[in-house]
Amino acid sequence: MPKDSYLVGLIGSGIGPSLSPALHQREADRQGLRCLYRLIDIETLGVPPEAVGDLLRAARDLGFDGLNITHPCKQLVVPHLDALSPQAEALGAVNTVVLDGGRAVGHNTDVTGFAASFARGLPDVPLERVVQLGAGGAGAAVAHATLTLGAERVTVVDALPERAAALAASLNRGFGAGRAAAAGPDRLPGLLAEAHGVGGLVNATPVGMAAHPGPPLPVELLHPRLWVADVVYRPLETELLRTARALGCLTLDGGGMAVFQAADAFRLFTGREPDSARMLAVFTELAGAVRAPK
Description:
Elements (H helix, E strand, L loop, with lengths): L4 E8 L7 H11 L3 E8 H4 L6 H10 L4 E4 L13 E2 L1 H6 L4 E5 L2 E5 L2 H12 L7 E5 L3 H12 L4 E5 L3 H15 L4 E4 L4 H5 L7 E4 L23 E4 L8 H9 L2 E3 L2 H16 L5 H16 L3
Parallel strand pairs: 1-2, 1-3, 4-6, 7-8, 7-10, 8-9, 10-11, 11-12
Antiparallel strand pairs: 3-5, 5-6
C-alpha cells in the first residue's frame, strides 16, 4: 500500500552535483508526498566501491525505502541483493534498489531511461552499426537499450578487454549471435573510419563528468556522418558533445536519460505514476541554472 513519505538515497562516487534529489523531491511535492533524498558519496566517506554492501545494510537498518546506485557500484551491489528484476538479472547491473519488507530487490531503469531519451532525441538516425565506449554498469544497460531500439550490431570498446568481451557475449546470448562484438581502444580508428559505415557513437563511460574531465576518445576520430550520444549529464555539454556538434554531428546529451530513469525509479519507490514531462521541465530549469553566469 503506497505511503505518504519516503526516505531514499543515491550511492556512488563524486555525486555531489547530482540532480537526482531535486528531481525526486520536487515530483513528490507535486504529488502531495514527502520525500527525503540523501546522497551517500563513497568519495566523501572515504570508503572503496566494495563497501556498497555495508552501505546497503546500513540503509536498510535506518529505514530507507529505496536507493539509486551509480558509478562505480552498479555491478558490485548485485551480490548483496535478495532478488533481481528479470532485466537487472540479464544485465548484471542495478541502478535502483527497492527496500520493502526486509528485502532488497534490484532493478535497472537505465535501460528504459536511455531508450526513452534516444527515441525522443535521436529519432530516425541510422542504427545498423553502433560503437559504444564502456562496458561497465551503465554500458550494459545502454548496449541492451540500443539493441532493443533496433541496432543491428553494437561493438563495445573498453579499456578492460575481458569486460568488453563478457558484455558482448551476454548480449549475443540475449539478442542472437553476431549482434555484439568486443574491441580494445586501439581499434577505434578503424571502427570509426567513415568507410567502415558506423552510424553512431555512444559514450557510456564516466569520462566527461566534472570529476573525470576530457573526452573519452581522441576527438580527431569524429566525423560529421556520426551521431553521438553521451550518458554524462553533469556537465550537460561534455567536451565530446561540444566537439561533435562543431563538426555537424547529431548529438544527444545525458539529460533525458537522467530524467527518464529517475521517473521509472520514482514509480518503483512510491508506486505512484510520475509526470515525466514535469520532471523534464524541472531538469531543464536546474540544468539552466547550473550553466547560467553567476
